[in-house]
Amino acid sequence: MEKRNQIPTLYLILPCYNEEAVLEKTSLVVKDKMTRLMKEGKITNVSKALFVNDGSRDATLRMLYDIAQKDSFYGVLSFAGNYGHQSAILAGMLEARLHADAAVTIDADLQQDIEALDRFLECYMDGCDVVYGVRNDRDTDGFFKKLTATTYYKLMHLLGSGALTNSADYRLMSKKALNALAEYGESSLFLRGLIPTMGFESDIVYFDVKAREAGESKYTFKKMLNLAMDGITSSSIRPIHMIGGLGFITVLAALVMIIFSIVDWARGNAVQGYTTSLIVTLILGGVILVSLSVIGEYVGKTYMEAKHRPRYIIDNVILRDVSYEDNTIEE
Ligand code: UDP
Ligand code: MG
Predict the structure, then answer these.
(1) Å from CA of 105 to ligand 1 middle
(2) Which of 98, 243, 273, 316 has the CB geometry, 3.0–4.6 Å to 78, for a possible disulfide?
(3) 111 CB under 6 A from ligand 1?
(4) How many CB atoms lie within 10 A of CB 173?
(5) Is the pTM of the predicted complex or chain greater than 0.90?
């Protein structure tokens, strides 16, 4: 890896969905931290915090406009609707690549330790293009979240996704990595699984997780389930291969059963075995339905991708004191 010798202009991306309860505190903490980094000569003084409003229904957007109006350190990118956390951080990063040398994404509730930024920057200066944040432990999570998260990562690896266990969307990407990310056109996004497949020089930073200070989790069970499904189906087709394996085993079992029943018939004790055939029929029916639904999931995904719909629609961007000069803006 080649060391970098110029400090970066850093954009901190904060996705916000109904975050009125934490915004004030977050904006202060972020400004304080970034100002310190500027004074310590770790980032340039045109670095910014970029909030991405993901179609909030509360006072979030008004508060963001307020904050950005008073201080050009803050930028706001606002979506026309709620397109989800993954789209929000993607939009933030794609905007950041036009103005910054590196972007870090972090949750607006600052549950992820912002003090870890120093270590992200060290890795960047060492020459990394991607730095993954990985959480130290899950002490602050409830029992249910801990259990589901652990099981999920195990399942994901089994099903062929490359996401790092317990990696969060707290991550640094260099301009080079961001430009590469911009080339990916898929609308079903699972960044945690996608970014490791890009193959840049990378490193890991471990960070602590705090409990959410105000407001409640915006990840409803449904959103979490959707993300979980995307995580598996958008980065791997191993489930389909597994169905193939299942089919093969079923055929073998059926062959054995056929041989047995022919032998049975030859010996003259047919009819018996009603229970067996009932069980076999039920199991087979179940397996076929599950397999169909897995394949259906992929067909559905293909259908959605084939539409080539925009991943999000930007309603407004406020970024003061930046020039779009030597950058081409996406159409
Ligand atoms: N978020 C978003 N769009 C959504 C849901 C969540 O932009 O549809 C943002 C949210 O504002 C927060 C981050 O994603 O900054 C993580 O959400 P949250 O803290 O509610 O999730 P948790 O920490 O409970 O997993
Ligand atoms: Mg949170």
Answers:
(1) 12
(2) 316
(3) yes
(4) 30
(5) no
